[in-house]
Amino acid sequence: MEGALTNSSSSTSPKGRGVNFSAPRNFGVKLRKKCKETFFPDDPFKPIGQEPNGLMKTKKLLEYFIPVFEWLPKYDLQKLKYDVLAGITITSLAVPQGISYAKLASIPPIIGLYSSFVPPFVYAVFGSSNNLAVGTVAACSLLIAETFGEEMSKNDPELYLHLIFTATLVTGIFQFAMGFLRLGILVDFLSHSTITGFMGGTAIIILLQQLKGVFGLAHFTHKTDVVSVIHSIVVNRAEWKWQSTLAGVCFLVFLQSTRHIKQRYPKLFWVSAMGPMVVVIVGCVVAFLVKGTAHGIQTVGPLKKGLNPPSIQHLNFESKYLGMVLKAGIVTGLIALAEGIAIGRSFAVMKNEQTDGNKEMIAFGLMNVVGSFTSCYLTTGPFSKTAVNYNAGTKTPMSNVVMGICMMLVLLFLAPLFSYTPLVGLSAIIMSAMLGLINYEEMYHLYKVDKFDFVVCMSAFFGVSFISMDYGLIISVGFSILRALLYVARPSTCKLGRIPNSVMFRDIEQYPTSEEMLGCVILQLGSPIFFANSTYVRERILRWIRDEPEVVEFLLLDLSGVSTIDVTGMETLLEVQRILGAKDIKMVLINPRFEVLEKMMLSHFVEKIGKEYVFLSIDDAVQACRFNLSKAKPEP
Amino acid sequence: MEGALTNSSSSTSPKGRGVNFSAPRNFGVKLRKKCKETFFPDDPFKPIGQEPNGLMKTKKLLEYFIPVFEWLPKYDLQKLKYDVLAGITITSLAVPQGISYAKLASIPPIIGLYSSFVPPFVYAVFGSSNNLAVGTVAACSLLIAETFGEEMSKNDPELYLHLIFTATLVTGIFQFAMGFLRLGILVDFLSHSTITGFMGGTAIIILLQQLKGVFGLAHFTHKTDVVSVIHSIVVNRAEWKWQSTLAGVCFLVFLQSTRHIKQRYPKLFWVSAMGPMVVVIVGCVVAFLVKGTAHGIQTVGPLKKGLNPPSIQHLNFESKYLGMVLKAGIVTGLIALAEGIAIGRSFAVMKNEQTDGNKEMIAFGLMNVVGSFTSCYLTTGPFSKTAVNYNAGTKTPMSNVVMGICMMLVLLFLAPLFSYTPLVGLSAIIMSAMLGLINYEEMYHLYKVDKFDFVVCMSAFFGVSFISMDYGLIISVGFSILRALLYVARPSTCKLGRIPNSVMFRDIEQYPTSEEMLGCVILQLGSPIFFANSTYVRERILRWIRDEPEVVEFLLLDLSGVSTIDVTGMETLLEVQRILGAKDIKMVLINPRFEVLEKMMLSHFVEKIGKEYVFLSIDDAVQACRFNLSKAKPEP
Asked: Is the same domain home to A568 and A459?
């Protein structure tokens, strides 16, 4: 072949340095591998398969699917001591939070208490995190209320409650299905930046919602965006009650100082954990003594004694509400998953433990399915409770069992006492929790390190604050996906030069001392080459050549970073070869990866390019080009 | 530092082989570079900036934006000869196609002729392709009719026509804006596979639509999907007319044989190009002689003499139609762009010429804006006409001017003659054109090379055939984007080994002879590491380590293929380091690229990992690890 390169590596040379042109793998093999990588990246069944006999295999499988079988046999008194302490501590947080968040969702406060009784038992059996404490969360509570709208909660509170149970069932089934189908991949698309911004924005709107309680307003908007809420507060300024505001400020100052104490002296974490309970008790006592309701201090109102009544007969699948129910269930389910999994993982990492996202989804799902049958609404792993649980030294999910038992006692004997809780106290508790969710430092960190991450974060933050929670989330995820697509649509290319006295070729811009090879342009392509970026890749390659001041005779494309290629991508490379061929420039490919080379073989691409133009390393290719150049020179 | 690696390359060693830890670039610099890569990958203004003085710069700029200034001064008689020949040939195709496609869009046939008169002049001025012939296309014509629905076209044909002009204006503005904003990137997401499938599916449904003409049916469904159409033909079998069917089959056989001749003897391309005109003329004569209408052969009906009347006063922006108009305009605009650009580019590549996607968009946009003012509907670069133009030897866009002039003559003098054209003749012309658009070979090629590409193609094909054109397109693009996201969500990793007697490290699976390094696991990561794949990357790395039979002391991550990283990605790597640290495994990073290293510096990631754990090449890292291992061994 005229002008062919002397490619010492093209065939099975004795040195064994050739490109491996052997036949591509079977399609079935590749598909199985791909599916495994997509859905089972952690290869969970491998240890089970290694067990010698069927009995052990069943045992391992049971342990895998129901984690309680793994940790309970190893359980001892020492661990129990810690778990009991942690369980009691989180109960003291669960009571006020349960009541407060139920208020946020516009449902009877007792539902909030019910929700801390049944689900923790379910989680203890199926959950894989040792630190997570089960409970309701502010963001999802508000989001549920937003989805169904205030009208329904006012006009027909019974129907409203039943729809919320139904949405909880939907959430449960959705979460379970996601875990079962191993679709943890969907949660991955809620990036860290999105969650930071979403939490911050949610905190802002929940904080503003609480001003209703602090100012003791009777009339208030039911929209959640910043503008409507501030407008509503200003318009209703005639209703402001100084008693309420004073109490609110006192409580908030108290709660924030307990937080401050915790930050100063981490050992005193229980001061902060007990804080909300103290506020509730003090509030109840004061409200009872001064007959607060007469002075315009609103209280929670009647709370019935007794355990969760069944709610399975109330589930409502009427088609006219089904759309709303599905939307509420799925959106809150996704957010609850993202929050719960992220939080569970963060704390596990601190202890060098592992949590399994797919197992967590199944546990959350079962918890909500069972919850929806027993008068509970959506539960997940809230940040504040989990942090307290972690600090209290929990060792296993047993702390959730302890919390469940404590909650049972509260429901059986103490519930009516909490009916005097002043709303302003609850508002202060929520506000204090929300202040901790606005993560300024993280936002500043994002701003400094990655401007696009910052934009994603801010779009969630401002979207939630000024539009609504679901739009904020959608906008932010949209930006993230746009970014992901931009990555693939505009993969970075760079020109390589030789690091002096070595066979390494590196980015010339990054290593300015590296030397260019005369007559050769060496480009490193990153990412897959496929339909979404093939035009760009072609333009960019041609531009590199155009920008070259010297005469170019060889274009060397380093494909080490190209993880895959599709039909459009290969056509693009052929097009580049044709265009360059017309300018007497030869195209050389270097180190195509396994999958890429397989496709090139299947589509006869290698034959079209010529095997002698495919090399295993840049150095080999440069040697061959130079040899060819020096040989070609004397000819004319 | 205890256990630190002896990294000869960590500082500015005399050999100059160190990792370049210099300060990151300024944000502004990076942003400008990023924007340039995203929107101006071909760097179009560079040659202009190189001009010495302002006058030359203006001239170059004018030449850039209005390509006619570039080619017209160099125009000569020799080129004119070819262009006149090509122009006349494509006119003979434009007349029957214009009438047929207007029928497809349910608008008066004369509009189809108008659409081949004004737009070609506009394209000749602004277009950058030398091969493209301007005209209407079947797919978009049918899609427009589908969007507005048959009811409107029946009940109020005037309003229907005015809305189509308005949609054409929307298309024009949209295409112009896309070109102006350099959003060619959007067209990239219509992959080759999608277009193959979409064209095939469209050909199927258009073929079926033509059976109405061939069977001479009076009643026919207005749905486009295969099931409805076949059902409609069977139900109305009482209306079948053998005269019509016979004529249709004859015409089709004639046209297909001219195509066959062209394929056999490419020099005789004009036989095939003139075919449709012959059908029309023969059809007219026969219909006139036998008084076809009396025998149930339907004809086109009255065609007025005269040039395009202005239509600017008919544009209709009433809000109740606006949604439909915008949808029709934008969807057809996108498809027309994708088709026009892809076709223009395919032919340019054969001649080793270049077309500029963004310029083409501007030209198409202007063409449609002007068209919508002068009673034309959507035009682009149809495949059949462009192929004929190319074969006829066109040299410049002047052939479009010639076609425009010929069309003017037709409109002024010959139009009424064509009113005798039998519909069955038009049906045969369309069917013959459509048969060429089903690209079986390409589909089989996709099936063989890339199963996912095949799925994308088939989803467009069957989606268009059995649901509707827009859904088919959306499903297919959805699959493509899903694939793009899967690429980034599940980047391939592989384990590297040393190729014997070299310093090259390659995929062990691909090169089975390569040697593993004792105590070290070397992994190559591909693609960016960011939110969408960070969980996967972590799981995958940990699994590689778990699967290792020997004791692992070092994990070497080759980051050469990692084109970028975000905050979540860096946290993931730190998490991996912490988890491995607990197992006494040290993590070493190799050759982070420019952008990646910059972000690592900004977020103090490098300090957390330790500079001595970052190497420039795998070989350096392996040397350091081995040195460390041999040193560590004797100690205990």
From this structure: no
Residue A39 lies in a domain: no
Mutate: best of B531, B593, B597, partner A, most A CBs <10 A: B531
CA distance A298 to chain B (A): 44
Q: Which two tokens stand for residue B25?
A: 């670039």
Percent of chain A at pLDDT exceeding 90: 16
A392 & A497 share domain: no
Same domain, B182 and B310: yes
Residue B11 has pLDDT above 50, yes or no: no
- Taking the C-alpha atoms of residue A478 and residue A308, their distance in angstroms, rounded to an integer, is 40
A508 and A436 fall within a common domain: no
What share of residues in chain A are helix, strand, coil (percent, to 5)? 65, 5, 30
Domain edge (last residue) among A484, A506, A523: A484
A585-603 per-position pLDDT tens digit: 999 999 888 888 888 888 8
CB contact under 8 A, B593 and A492: yes
Q: Are A606 and A600 in contact (CB under 8 A)?
A: yes
Task: State how far the alpha carbon of B15 is from the alpha carbons of A292, A508, B219, in Å.
Answer: 81, 17, 85
Could you give phi then psi for residue B588, rounded to 5 degrees? -125, 135
| A542 shares a domain with A432 | no
The domain in which residue A571 lies consists of: 492-632
More confident of the two residues B634 and B380: B380
Mark whether B210 and B146 lie in a shared domain. yes
Answer yes or no: is pLDDT of A605 > 60.
Answer: yes
pLDDT tens for residues A238-259? 878 887 888 889 989 998 898 8
Whether B502 and A453 lie within 8 Å, measured CB to CB: no
Residues 50-79 of B with CB under 8 A from A: none
Entry pTM: 0.75
| Residue A166: Cβ within 10 Å count | 24
Q: What is the mean pLDDT of residues A360-377?
A: 93
Nearest alpha carbon to residue B585 among B619, B613, B623: B613
Using a CB-CB cut-off of 8 Å, the residues of chain A touching B490 are 37-38, 41, 185
Q: Are residues B311 and B427 in the same domain?
A: yes
Residue A165 has pLDDT above 90, yes or no: yes
Distances (CA, A) of B288 to B246, B283, B304, B412, B421: 17, 8, 18, 21, 9
Give Cα B461 to chain centroid, integer Å: 16
- The tally of CA atoms less than 13 A away on the side-chain side of residue A485 is 17
The per-residue DSSP string of A215-276 comes to HT-S------SHHHHHHHHHHTGGG--HHHHHHHHHHHHHHHHHHHHHHH-GGGHHHHHHHH
pLDDT tens digits, residue range B46-84?
A: 777 777 777 888 888 888 888 888 888 889 888 898 898
- Looking only at the bridges linking them, the beta strands covering A520-526 and A586-590 are unpaired
Q: Is residue B271, in this structure, part of any structural domain at all?
A: yes
Contact A185 B567 (CB under 8 A): no
The answer to whether residue A573 neighbours chain B at the CB level (below 8 Å) is no
Dump pLDDT digits (tens) for B303-323: 888 888 998 888 888 888 888
Q: What is the pLDDT of residue A288?
A: 79
Nearest to A560 among B449, B561, B616 (CB): B561
CATH number at residue A511: 3.30.750.24
C-alpha–C-alpha distance, residues A117 and A108, integer Å: 16
Please tell me the total count of domains within chain B. 2
What is the C-alpha separation between B557 and B591, in angstroms, rounded?
9
Instruction: Identify the DSSP state of A354.
Output: -
Q: Domain boundary at A484, A507, A538, which?
A: A484
Residues B262/B268, Cβ–Cβ less than 8 Å: yes
State whether B263 and B408 are in the same domain. Answer: yes
Cβ contact B567–A193 (<8 Å): yes
Residue at A98 is within a domain: yes
Q: Is residue A51 domain-resident?
A: no
